[in-house]
Amino acid sequence: MAWRLRGYSGDTEREVALAPGKVITIGRSPECAVHLTDAKVSRRHAELRWAPPVDDHGGHWRVGDCGSISGTFLNGVKLAQHREVRLDHADSLTIESWRFRVDDLSGDLTMAEGAATIVHSVGGSEGFVPLPAVQVPAEFNQGLLVHLFAAHENIALAEDEVSVGQAVVESLTMATGFANVAFLREGTAPGDAELVFGSGATANGRGELQLSRSVLKRARNGIFTNQCEASPGATIAASLDSLAIKQVLCVPVKMGKMFFGWIYLDNRGGDVHESSERDAPGIALAVAGLAGLSLANIERGKMQQRFDLETSEKYEGVVRALIDAVDKKDPYTSGHSRRVSEFAALLAQAAKLSDEHVRQTRECGLVHDIGKIGVPEAILRKPTRLEDDEFAQIREHPVKGAEILGSIPQMRDLLPGVLQHHERWDGKGYPNNLKGEEISQLGRILCIADCFDAMTSARVYRPARTIPDVRAELEKCLGTHFDPELGRLFLSISDHELAARIVRPTSPREAA
């Protein structure tokens, strides 16, 4: 398990190892693990904490804003104050002038194929042109307009970083006359760059970058070109001369607080094009803006998916807590809800229901008995048969369950199954004596799954019944207790599939 937080502000870099079990604070206070002196950074601005694995969800780092004034941005999206969200490999965390990258180094992620190290110390500002100094012409010639419109359409249709990079490179190759064009992103290690998409001689056959890395360093905050009035410094000149580069242009791809990488163009050998020098900065800047907007939208979509996942995990946590609460009241039947969930899902699949309906059926099985929270433990744990008044209290659990879950929006689709899983096909069930198809499909499925698990599980007053014995009982009750069509589908499920899901609960003696 090896995670790292690496950040920079101007020429200053910071790197912090993230150790599970620790809380990593970021802020202006000297006590913070990541101490930032920027006056706009709050004393305790943000914090990172490790979330250990839970069930099928692996461990991960989470970031939360501590109520800062200026905000904490994850992949360009401002986090709500005091709200945590998970971090993934290569996430970008921005706090004022500082931009951090989060890296999971536990896998082979430290250097992507084709990554190249950028020189850190590159000297002064020769060849650098601030972004405001390069103006997009008010009127491109007709040919450039055609290329720009095509670039806009292709970039807008792109669904991921690679397709954005391909649209950028193909558009600028045609529009500018530069022979070598590349779209690059930051690499994992400090100073790395990785090729997203390139043409010409920007990379060799082994995927290694063949371009001026010093230029990339200069162009993080503005356009770099060696065709401006200032002559290149010694570091840049050596870098360009080593590759026989006669013309070079590099533009950062940014949107708001997000830096996505660079658009890099050069001509080598004896090729120097006046039209490239005149028109390329404007068209490259325009395309960089389109690419930045598209990539920002893609990142927002990813962040929304992450927020949705967070919501889903919270929902699953609520379900687990409710199920555990029922299990603690009646440990003898612990695991019943999970088994009913599996049997119900098998039946939904046998009925060829949609994936969404199978998911819904599985979830309903988990919570179908949640109303038993309102039933006294003395009744749930009674080692002998229930008296009439005690059974009357048990019969209230479908209604109580529907009342409990009715206030949770994500569970409202499950209410029919929770309320009706004890209704019978012949109308003699409870709580509403519904008959036939008056009972929801979800209720009819849960009824079969619930009864199957009850009969194949041991009770204090009887041992568990065998699968053949239970099959015979189900078949005898088709058209009375159970929906005959769904019942026959359940009987078509193999013994092997059913037996794999039968887990013996705690014995009566152990539960006492």
Task: Supply the key terms.
512 residues, alpha+beta, Tumour Suppressor Smad4, Beta-Lactamase, Hypothetical protein af1432, 7-stranded antiparallel sheet, 6-stranded antiparallel sheet, 16 helices, elongated, disordered C terminus
Counting DSSP E segments of at least 2 residues, the number of strands comes to 18
Radius of gyration: 32 Å
- Secondary structure: helix percent: 25-40%
Total domain modules: 3
Secondary-structure topology with pairs:
Layout: E1 3-9, E2 12-18, E3 23-27, E4 34-35, E5 46-51, E6 60-65, E7 73-74, E8 77-78, E9 84-86, E10 91-95, E11 98-104, E12 116-117, E13 128-129, H1 142-157, H2 161-176, E14 180-186, E15 192-199, H3 213-218, E16 223-225, H4 234-242, E17 245-255, E18 258-268, H5 274-329, H6 336-350, H7 355-367, H8 377-380, H9 388-394, H10 397-405, H11 415-420, H12 441-456, H13 467-476, H14 484-491, H15 495-499, H16 508-511
Parallel strand pairs: 3-4
Antiparallel strand pairs: 1-2, 1-11, 3-5, 5-6, 6-9, 7-8, 7-10, 10-11, 12-15, 13-16, 14-15, 14-18, 16-17, 17-18
Helix pairs in contact: 1-2, 1-5, 2-5, 6-7, 6-12
